[in-house]
Design brief:
The complex is a heterodimer of chains A (339) and B (417). In chain A, strands 1-2 form a two-stranded antiparallel ribbon. Chain A contains 11 helices and 2 strands; from the N terminus they run αββαααααααααα. In chain A, a hairpin with a 4-residue loop joins strand 1 and strand 2. Chain B is mainly alpha-helical and 417 residues long. Chain B has 2 domains: 92 residues, no CATH class; 216 residues, MetI-like fold. Chain B is built from 16 helices and no strands. Classes of the chains: A mainly alpha (339), B mainly alpha (417).
């Protein structure tokens, strides 16, 4: 019978030299890697090209205006008077209103789905929230313009008449004492756009939070219950601290989406180039609706300005998104998730 | 309560004794039991809905409805359905909390009212979604029920003509063509890129992953602006369906790559290793093991990317132009898609055109619903889990393999040892 293993013969007295270990890919594998990595590099090139081209085109306008680009609120490129101050403030306001409304709703809904809802309802609600995230923005825009606007105007009027003394809720030209005054000063405002965007942002935040809340270690939940905690007590000491990273990350993701929203905002607002913080008042603006409004009749120079505005928006959403993924990855719950 | 105090007092006593005479101190001390229990502990039924719970809810609901009805139209100048719902829910929450506080302690009150608040917000989400869907269907219903709406275009239809003439057939065709081109670009490129991210672990792939993550933050209008400035202004092509599909692809690529990357990473490593141990080259491992295992997840990621791309208006607005007539050539002349048609028609301000715009939005929404349902059906299983039919097919295949092996073995000459 043969021995199965054989020792390589090494000459007596000579020290054994280590064998070089190299692996060489066979030809088919090399071709495969060529195809796959070239597509990776192509995607990289494409994405970098978008960024570089936008920056290159935006350079003219930024150079012409300098820092004034960020402090000017008008948009009159013919007179070399243009900047993003007003549209940027408008974008942030709309996004803030959206997140302020969507945040409590999404946290509570995610908690309801994970902790409270009976099993038969849970899967339905999960599908529903996912579906809300997939509904096209133009549909939300139509809904907001034709259905929600008429309803929210009443709420705007109410907020204004009770909290009008806060500068944020002031409305110029409104007369809260007269019930017959026109509602038009309350329409097409940043608040209404924010409410509509909130409906689009809520499911995005809710999906991330639900994912995180459902990963809470069962031992910790049961420990809290075993110590006599109520359900809300358990949520407060176990679920919410565990999911904090996911909650912040999800909120930021929603914020990024709200900042970039174009068509729903464009349908609702009446554009205006003034820096104003009065969210309830008619007239608002955002960077993306500025681009959508002006691109068609833009000259080369104005186009450069639009690119610069878009680039500013991109920079903001980029920071928001990276902060979000940093928070998610860093949190205890997010270590294994890929959100 | 008394027993805790007792036992604590005793423990302190013993600690003092222990310090004085360490040898004699007993190790364990039984706390003195309360001598007489005032009443036998009552058994509580857990997990059941008691009569009081139902009465609390019903009472709060009734009183909230009445209060809101009084507030709206009688006591104050508030009006509007939306406002009354908001106020009604707030009143309900407050009254319910007050009712529970009558007979329960603080932690229970907080627990109950937070549970109700969570249920309310779930309800709000439900109502919002159903109202979006039904409102758009309701407003577009007149247009949706006419057959000509799906097959005709608007080229020979005046703005005041009734809904029985003209339709959004051109937008449906445009959406399908644009989506098909975008798919042809994004699926091979996106999946190959996701495979690249998973199969190689160099500095380049890390860079690609970071850049792709960054690009998911790209506002969709910037994808449109990029194509508008390069393809149309610099390269001098006209606005066309092709330009719009390229803009859509730029927007969809990061989304598809990212979700495909996540799905591929979930493929169990032992499958890969088993394949490598059997001597398969890497491309065979990817082609025959990794991709089939992750098939349902990959399908989902592509479908969700499409659902996102199909509904985007902003990039199409900038790159495709608007036309009222049918155009099946994506390389020349403007081509319109459903979301753009909905946007333009609604902006026109004419009643018939607005109805058509809602019809277009409803068709778009139904398309997205179908895609979404498909994604749920296909992607419901984790990687590697087969459906019934797939299991049957795999079993049949392996039976065939056994038969083949048996046949080849019997044809071999007998091995003599």
């Amino acid at each position: 019978m043969d021995t199965l293993t054989t020792r390589p013969s090494v000459a007596e007295g000579e020290p054994a030299t280590p064998q070089p270990l190299t692996s060489r890919r066979i030809r088919s594998d090399r071709a495969f890697f060529g195809i796959v990595s070239s597509s990776g590099v192509l995607v990289l090139a494409l994405m970098v090209a978008v960024g570089v081209f936008l920056s290159y085109q935006a350079f003219d306008a930024l150079q012409a205006r300098g820092l004034a680009f960020f402090t000017t609120s008008e948009w009159q490129p013919d007179r070399n008077q243009f900047g993003v101050a007003a549209v940027l403030v408008g974008t942030l306001l709309i996004a803030l209103v959206a997140v302020a409304i969507a945040l409590p709703l999404s946290i509570l809904t995610a908690l309801f789905i994970v902790e409270v809802a009976p099993t038969w309802l849970r899967s339905t609600l999960v599908a529903l929230v996912d579906l809300m995230a997939a509904v096209p923005s133009v549909v939300y825009g139509l809904w907001g313009l034709f259905l929600l606007q008429g309803q929210v105007v009443g709420v705007s009027r109410w907020i204004n008449s009770w909290f009008g003394w806060i500068p944020f809720f002031k409305v110029n030209g409104a007369d809260p004492t007269s019930p017959l005054s026109s509602a038009s000063v309350y329409s097409a405002s940043a608040f209404i756009a924010g409410v509509v965007v909130a409906m689009m942002v809520m499911p995005i935040q809710c999906v991330v939070m639900r994912e995180v809340f459902s990963q809470v270690p069962p031992g910790e939940r049961e420990g809290a219950f075993a110590l006599g905690s109520t359900r809300w007590g358990m949520i407060r000491v176990v679920t919410l601290p565990f999911g904090r990273g996911g909650m912040i990350g999800g909120t930021m993701l929603g914020l990024g989406r709200a900042l970039g929203e174009t068509i729903a905002v464009l349908l609702i607002i009446s554009p205006e180039f003034v820096i104003k913080f009065r969210v309830l008042e008619v007239g608002a603006n955002s960077v993306s609706s500025l681009i959508a409004l002006r691109y068609s009749e833009a000259s080369g120079f104005e186009l450069s300005g639009l690119m610069a505005a878009g680039l500013t928006l991109f920079a903001v959403t980029l920071v928001v998104n990276f902060t979000a993924s940093w928070f998610i990855a860093r949190s205890r719950s997010g270590a294994s998730s890929e959100a | 309560m008394t027993s805790t105090i007792d036992s604590m007092g005793q423990r302190e006593e013993h600690a003092e004794q222990g310090a004085a005479a360490p040898a004699a101190a007993p190790r364990t001390v039984l706390p003195a039991r309360p001598t007489a229990t005032t009443a036998a502990p009552q058994r509580r039924s857990i997990g059941k809905i008691s009569r009081r719970d139902v009465l609390d809810l019903a009472g709060a609901l009734l009183s909230a409805v009445c209060t809101t009805a009084l507030l709206f139209g009688r006591l104050t100048s508030l009006h509007g359905k939306f406002g009354s719902v908001v106020v009604g829910l707030a009143v309900f929450l407050v009254i319910y909390t007050a009712l529970v506080a009558l007979h329960d302690e603080r932690p229970a009150v907080i627990d109950r009212s937070m549970t109700v608040a969570m249920a309310i917000s779930g309800l709000v989400a439900l109502v919002a979604l159903t109202s979006v869907i039904f409102f758009v269907l309701y407003r577009g219903w007149d247009a949706l029920t006419k057959a000509n709406f799906y097959f005709n275009d608007l080229s020979s239809t005046g703005p005041s003509e009734p809904l029985t003439s003209g339709g959004v057939g051109h937008a449906i065709v445009g959406t399908l063509i644009m989506t098909a081109i975008a798919l042809a670009i994004t699926v091979p490129l996106g999946l190959a890129c996701a495979v690249y991210l998973n199969e190689s672990s160099g500095r380049v792939s890390k860079l690609v992953r970071t850049v792709v993550t960054a690009m998911t933050a790209l506002p969709s209008i910037l994808a449109g602006l990029f194509i508008f400035a390069t393809w149309i202004l610099v390269l001098g092509f006209e606005r066309s369906g092709l330009a719009a599909s390229i803009a859509m692809s730029i927007m969809m690529l990061p989304i598809i790559i990212r979700s495909a990357d996540v799905v591929l990473r979930l493929v169990p490593g032992n499958l890969r290793e088993a394949s490598a141990a059997l001597g398969a080259p890497q491309w065979r491992t990817v082609w025959h093991v990794v991709l089939p295992t992750a098939r349902s997840g990959l399908t989902t990621s592509v479908i969700l990317g499409v659902a996102r791309g199909i509904g985007e208006t902003a990039p199409v607005l900038l790159t495709a132009g608007y036309t009222a007539s049918l155009n099946v050539n994506p390389t020349a002349n403007p081509m319109v898609s459903l979301p753009l048609a909905a946007y333009v028609l609604v902006k026109s301000g004419n009643d018939n055109l607005i109805a058509r715009g809602f019809g277009a939005a409803a068709v778009l929404m139904i398309l997205v619903l179908i895609l979404f349902t498909l994604a749920r059906i296909l992607g419901g299983r984790p990687a590697g889990r087969l459906s019934k039919r797939q299991t049957k097919r795999a079993a049949a295949r392996s039976k065939g393999d056994i038969a083949r092996i048996d046949a080849s073995r019997s044809s071999l000459p007998e091995v003599t040892s």
